[in-house]
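= Protein in question =
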Amino acid sequence: MADQDKPPKIPAAGAVLWRPGEQGPEVALVHRPRYDDWSFPKGKCLPGEHVLITAVREANEETGIEVILGRRLRTVRYLSDGRPKQVDYWAARPAAQTGGQDETGGPGERAPFVPNEEVDQLAWLPLTLAGDRLSYDRDTGVLSEFAAAPAATTAVIMVRHASARNKKAWHNAGHPDDLTRPLTPLGHVQARLLAQILSCFGPARVISSTAERCLATIEPYAKLTGGVVEPTPAFAPPPGSPETGEPPPEETAAARELMTGLVTTGEPVVACAHRETLPAMLRAACEVLGAPVPAGPPLRKGAFWALHVAGGRLISAEQHNLKS
C-alpha cells in the first residue's frame, strides 16, 4: 500500500498516575465498561492539541484528578478499528491531595470519583496488583518502565524564546539595544500556548534572560502558575554573538554557572533563554548530573527541553515543539 493510501495514525496520550503507598507507589487504573477492560487513563488528541495537554486532560477527565506530569515513558503503537494508534505516556502525580476514598479504602486524591459512560471504576493499586489487573500486555510494558526508575522526579526546563522581530530590521529602525527587541504578534500567540503546555509540568521557579523577547515569552506561564519571572543577565546572549554557531565558552560561562546551580537545588525550574546560550546551559545541566547531552536538533523558537531529575541523576529528557 502506498503511503498516501495508508490510514492516518490516531495520536493519543495517557498517564501512569501514581501516589505514595505503604509499600511503594500505587497507580491509578480505570475500568471502561464499553470494553470491559482495565487500563491507564488515556485518550485521543483533540485537533491541534499538544500531546502534553492531551495527557493531562485525559487523566483528569477519566479520574477526576488534576495531575502534574513527570518523566516521559514509552510510546505504545497498535491497531484500533483497523487504524494505527499511537499513545504517548508520562508518569504523573496528583496536583493536590484533597481527601476522599477510593476502592482500596485509602485516602483518595479527589472526593469522590464519579462514574461516567466512559469510565465506571477507578482503582489505586500497588504495582504488582496493578500488573495483574491490567488487560493488555502493552500496558504492562508501560508499567514495567515506570517501575524501573524513580517515580518522583523534578523538572528542569529550558525554553527558547518565541518568535521575535527581525534583529537587523530592529537595529535599522533605530533600536541599537537588541535586548529591547520584542515578540511579533505570532510570538505572543506562541507564548500563550507555551504557558498552557509548560503548566502540564506544574509550577516552577521561573528565570529568564533580561531580553524583552524572553521575558514576554515566559510571563504568561508565570502568571498562569502563580509565579514571578526572575530576570538575569547571565542568560542573555553575549554582545556581538554570531548569527550562526555557538559563542566561545568564556562568553557563556555565567549561563553555565547559573544553570549548574539551578539543577543542584532539587527544585523545579523553567529557564527562558536564547539560541546562543541554550546549548551551553543544556551541557552544564547534563555535566552536573553526570549524563551525556541528549540527542536532538537545536531548539526552534518556542521549543524546550524538559529534563527529569531524581537523586542528582538525569532520569529522562524530552524535547518539545509548540506543535506535537
